[in-house]
Amino acid sequence: MSTLITRVRQRQIAQHIEKGKRLDGRGLNEYREIKIEQGLIEKAEGSARVRLGKTEVLVGTKIELGEPFPDTPNEGVQTVNAELVPLASSTFEPGPPDEDSIELARIVDRGIRESKAIDTAKLCVEPGKKVFVVFIDVYVLNHDGNLIDASALAAVAALKNTKMRNYEVENGEVKFLTGYSPLPMRSSPITVTLGKIGDALIADPWLEEEQVMDARISMAVNENGNICAIQKGGSGYFTPQQILTAAKIAKEKAAELRKTLGW
Amino acid sequence: MNEKIEKLIDKKGLRLDGRKPDELRPIKLEVGVLPNADGSAYIEHGKNKILAAVFGPREMHPKHLTLPDRMAIRCRYHMAPFSVQERKSPAPSRREIELSKVIREALEPAVFVEYYPRVGIDVFIEVLQADGGTRCASITAASLALADAGIPMRDLVVACAAGKADDCVVLDLNDAEDKLGVADVPVAYMPSLNAVTLLQMDGILTQDEFERAFNLALEGCKKIYAMQKEALRTKYLQVKEVEE
Question: Quick check: is A245 in a domain?
Fold first, then answer.
């Protein structure tokens, strides 16, 4: 997921961050402007578009009947898929999902799954046989850095926007009724990604900063300020102290974003 | 299998396999186990049985994967179909693709990649039996295989998980604790450099619990690090004896 960036520019970015500044004028822990629109795809059960600066991600949800996993016979199923479609960046190529899109999907999936955001117990129709499957498809429309946070936000926003057709069960068969109900939700996790440039941690790295950073760390945080998923990425490292600092920053930023978004 | 497990920690504070909360499973490490590989290692960590092999430095195929300024590292983490309770399809799953990526990124900071432009190394990991914590055991073995292949490294990478089972923060989760526990925090670490190269987590932990689990995992890493060095010494002292 890398584009070319000159050494001069790389140095410029790193030097600014050493002084506690960023080239786009943001503070080290400051996010770009976030815009969320919900329900723009009428045919999807739920949808949301998130703009994080110039990064743009669209998520659509679909709900279908399917089989539960054998180890969780009483629970509905959640699946996340991510597409880095070629129109989003000159570095994306068409074809089956590569490791970047699989990692992105799995980070988004883990944030939702581990925070128990979807009340999957309420999606069971017939234990062991029939449950509702929630498909969450992440569609990256413009890549300008920090796809993880934008996708995680868009996924939760889409789930909050998701409605299910009312139904009743008759002899094991699902009969759909008129009207819709919201998808049963229990939590709205917020994922905060920090990049490491030199010894500094920066929130919401944008594309050029991603080219310079050694490593990133993403943490999903729930309403209670608890961490429910973590992923370190990139070929650099963090010191243990930086990890603990990152956990504190993630908690603060998640609370702050939650307040702004009204989640 | 599949009997209901209600409690992971008993009244005495011991775990299902009789361990204390801060106790590691038995670990066996062996270096240089595969004659055809440039470097290899075998690990038994609890019931995990994992082979790691390194090939290279060598020319990259396909060539377009070559990097002009550093060595390319390719990593494949793969589970044998018979390594788990229900047969696993041998085709790489999404989980395996993600783990291959995070394992590569855990090993890369240790290697002096900048000294080897335009060549590559392959790290192949085969999980023969899985018992919770395979990614950590794989990293521990793979870094030994890299050292065995003579790849210049800043430090060995060692990995260990900690987590929460019932109400207790525990070290080195086994299969049952991994599946039924509250949270799992795998950590890879370079002890001499004090650098964390892999960190993942799933489950719910408070800040305090996370801090305790993370620190516990680092302690576990340091213990395994000593075993890693011993395993390398064991092999290379033997080589010396034969030469003499």
Answer: yes
